[in-house]
Amino acid sequence: LKGFFSSLNPANSALPFWHLMASMVIKRFAALLIPAIALESELVHVDDECAEGTECALSAIQLRGVSKDVELSNSTDSGPACADLNDPANEVCAPVVRWASDGGRWDPNADSWFKDMQAIAGVDYKSASRDDWQKLYFCAPPGGKQCGTPPCKCSNPPCNVCIQTGQSPSTSSNCGDDSNSIACKPPKKALDYNGMAWEDMEVKGMGPHHIFAIGDWGGMDGTLNPIEGRTQLIAYPAGVRSGPSVFPRTRWNKAHSQQLCNHTEFVECYKTMGQSCALGCGFVKGIDDQPQLLVANSFKVRAAKKEPAFILNVGDNFYWGGIEKTCGTPMDELSYTAHHQFDQIFEGVYNGPGLDGKVWLSVLGNHDWGGRVFNNGWDQQIAYTWKSNRWRMPAAYWSQHVNFVDAGYTMDIFMVDSNAMDAEDLEEDPEHNICGAKHNSPDASCASSGGPENLQTCKQWFWDLWSTNKAWLADGLAKSQADWQVAVTHFPCGFESGFWVQMHNQHGLDLLVTGHRHDQELWSPNRLGGLTCFVTGGGGGISSEATPNIHNKKDWYGEAQYGFYDITVTKRAMAITSINWNGYEIMTQAVYPK
Measuring CA to CA, which residue among 302, 308, 293, 356 is closest to residue 583? Predict the structure, then answer.
């Protein structure tokens, strides 16, 4: 560098000129570095599910808008009016945009750094204009230095829309005969369709029919270039890769009275692939380091054989905190952040014969709302319903009627939001509290999306939502004439047990499908007043409750740690089969209509 810059200095005063230019290059180069070559200090070393009084996860993983770092972003929440790169709103990103467009595009690492250019700007980064570079740094800034506005001109307008291809099937593709159906167009606000029914689904064939159920499956997207000053979703070096990586939680004994492995210890297991790992962590190389992919592979293999009619998805679809942006994106738009996470964690994982085109009936989990905040991009998961032919989540709670036309029976499925269970007073349980004061911004609001208006009313908002859910479900069950009644919700068997027993005994609920606990638990009906319930929280987005070592089951709640369920259904009976991560059938339980 010294020789190069000396040759450019007409006064030949090499030392000061060399220092000046080298400093500029180093600063601009450092601004582009992504966590593929991140310093270890940028990785996560704090707990996810941890004891009160300790510092828990995401102070490093996500900034949550608590204090958007002015060194990383000066974008605003008021809407991206376009502006020139020289506008003060783009002061943070302008130097790196100029560097990248002038010569940085020829860096040996450019393919990795600027991989999103084609999807965002519709051009290759080698031929992109400076305006295209501004658009890239507005939508998905490599290194995090986000532009405050999109450009006013670019190679492929509109310049304020971050996705150019493949993001939006025609809304008419979801419509049936009723043009007024909620399937035809998204709501103005995310929760406007709460309590409404999606168009009836028809399933052909004499059966028996199969329905798969899975939850807590969505790992971290380590190749996402976050916006809003957020840090990349990387908990350990191997997390810098395409596709999902698992979030290492803590592990406890079965009674949850003794912590066997804290998050810092568990991260060390993942960093060293078990070579340096506390015994209590129970880390199993080859399983704990890739559970979502293992479960997904068995999911796909079985789907190719059994042809499931649809999938029941109990939530926690993206760890750690759902879609990594603040709520408020218009419902007819999809942010590049949401597009990237869905592409890497969902579309690119669950596909193939037996799964392609199969609908996922979905609810939000507590992590989808934000984990320990309420204002992450949960509304984008709802919006994706009208951007996809197989993702179905038109509201926080909603229903689906299924007509098995040839087999001669019907099913009503009620999708219920139970996340009030993690909505507490401001100072309580800050590491698990959606409405806690510790991690929510004082001015956090999702009012524009129909969500909580502010932090002070957050807890009451969620509990009002739960009360409304309960009344809606009781009314829907009472009116249902279907042969089968099924409820799907996030929080597991045992929560609000009196209510669910009442739904079974008074209104005929046949099956309760849940998640949240990170394992697989097929409950005997006598544990819940005759109601069959199972927990399918072992989808692999987060590490399991206990070690998956089958020779060490003393701390297991259920029959497996990672897996999913296959429900075989006829008019007269269901057979619920627990499928382990390796595809083995572990146990089966029969259910008969109430």
Answer: 302
Structural contact between residues 270 and 319, judged by C-beta atoms closer than 8 angstroms: no
CA-based nearest residue to 228, from 154, 329, 342: 329
Name the amino acid, one letter, at 75.
S
List strand residue ranges (DSSP E) for 128-279, in order.
201-203, 209-214, 220-221, 244-245, 251-252, 259-261
> Are the C-beta atoms of 550 and 258 separated by less than 8 Å?
no
pTM assigned to the model: 0.87
Do the beta carbons of residue 134 and residue 153 sit within 8 Å? no
Cis peptide before 320 (omega within 30 of 0): yes
Q: Are 401 and 473 in contact (CB under 8 A)?
A: no
The two structure tokens encoding residue 394: 């038109």
Half-sphere exposure of 166 (CA within 13 A, CB side): 10
Please list the residues that pair with 314 across neighbouring strands: none
Q: What is the pLDDT of residue 321?
A: 95
Name the residue among 50, 492, 34, 65 with its Cα closest to residue 321: 65
Q: Return the structure tokens found at 69.
A: 């770092």
- Where the chain has pLDDT below 50, the residues are 1-79, 165-172
Contact 574, 284 (CB under 8 A): no
DSSP 287-351: TTTSHHHHHHHHHHHHHHHH--SEEEE-S--STTTSSSSBS---TT---HHHHHHIIIIIITTS-
Residue 455: helix, strand or coil by DSSP? coil
Say how far apart CA 289 and CA 49 lie, in whole Å. 18
CA distances in angstroms from 136 to 71, 100, 115, 118, 152, listed in the order given: 18, 11, 10, 9, 13
Distances (CA, A) of 135 to 161, 231, 504, 552: 9, 20, 53, 52
List alpha helices for 167-283, DSSP H. 263-272
How far apart CA 594 and CA 592 sit, in angstroms, is 6
Radius of gyration of the chain (CA): 25
Here the tokens at position 181 are 């159906």
Q: Classify residue 202 by its DSSP letter.
A: E
- Let me know: does 358 contact 308? Beta carbons within 8 Å: yes
Q: Do the Cβ atoms of 447 and 456 come closer than 8 Å?
A: no
Q: What is the 3-state secondary structure (H, E, C) of 210-226?
A: EEEEECCCCCEECCCCC
Report d(CA 484, CA 411) in Å as an integer: 5
Q: Residue 442's Cα: distance from chain center in Å?
A: 24
pLDDT in tens, 294-321: 999 999 999 999 999 999 999 999 999 9
Of 179, 220, 173, 181, residue with least CA distance to 197 = 181
CA distances from 82 to 94, 152, 480 (A): 14, 5, 51
- The neighbour count for residue 80, using CB atoms within 10 Å, is 18
Contact status, residue 92 vs residue 70, Cβ threshold 8 Å: yes
Residue 448 sits at the vertex; the CA angle it makes with 445 and 454, to the nearest 5 degrees, is 20
